[in-house]
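LOG
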Amino acid sequence: MDISTLIGVAGCFAMVGLGVISGGTSLGTFVDIPSVLIVVLGSYFGLFTFSSIPDAVGIFTTIGLTFRASNYNEKSLIQQLMAMSEKARREGLLALEEMLDDIESDFIKKGLRLVVDGTDAEIVRTLMETEMGQMQERHVSKIQVVNMWGTLAPGLGMLGTVIGLIGMLKNLEDKSALGPNMAVALITTLYGSMVANLLMIPWAGKLKISDAKESKVMEMAIEGVLSIQAGDNPRILGMKLLSYLTPVERKAMEAEILKD
């Protein structure tokens, strides 16, 4: 589980709650079912207009990904590709076939299968980059839906404010209706801001970062597969892949990976 997402969400709501309580107001004052209906559910159903039904329904699965810890294990990837490079140089590319079943990544396995089958390097690159591009398009599509919820929520909040004010102005004689209508008017704006700024925008940002990390690992895999096909020295292959990492990550792995 990605603890940082949990800390972020819990921390935001905790600070807002503490701010409310320390101001002498009860949290119950900010619970309003009509406002939830207008802002939370109203903006959610707006997603069905923006996207397809599977994407709108699947947004909760997408959001769930922000709570899942992803470990792309670049170090293991580099070491595995270096080992294959060494075997290919010593025994030939066909010798890699017996190692394919041990590879967990279907993406790398497909690339190496093409190499073992003697496919031209440019075709291997094109096929692998196309698969990576398709993955990125799927990610962008899902991230846009999350972003759209964050965009719609404040708008529905303003709509709820207008609805509340109209209800209040139409019932000025009824003193008992002033409070509930005013509550809807103001709390909807609060809910819209909270849905957008405490949830959807941070979640969309985290999904973008995850997409960038996964794309980088796939780029490393493409470079590694093509380097094996080209017959590069394992050390050269390792140096190529390490160049994708940040200086801090590179320094942490370099000594161990290139020790020989």
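LOG (cont.) second protein
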Amino acid sequence: MSRSVLFTLRILLALLFAASLTAQVASGAIAGAAQAGPLSGILLALVVTGALCVEVVLVSVWMLVAMVQSEKIFDDRGSADTWVNTAIGALLAGAVVALGGVIAVVIVQLGEPDAAGWPLALLAATAAGVSAALALLVVVMRRLLHTAIQLRSELAEVI
């Protein structure tokens, strides 16, 4: 893989990590300014936990990029699986947290309706769907990685 592609990817990962960290730090002020009451707490919890899940995925991708750079991604010991499974777990956790946010917002909306409640529920539902889809995509990519490792091992035996 080209060094420039890996370098660019690492820069983008670092920028995304910094943006996620900034969102976590500023989430209290944003939630307080945007809403008052129970929706503020739900929004704060969603932003903080969602950003944490994103950070775990970014660290996992960073480690996988390092393995690609050192050509250890096709290692037979399955060391790449640890980081791939970590990313899948973080994405699934993000989906569950977002789904919990949807349920909490709907319950709050049924009790005391707020104009910002339904858009927040829609945003959380979208985040849950995107996170679940990405988790399934990474599961497919993990299977492709295993197939590539197996094919490489078979080719090495032939040669």
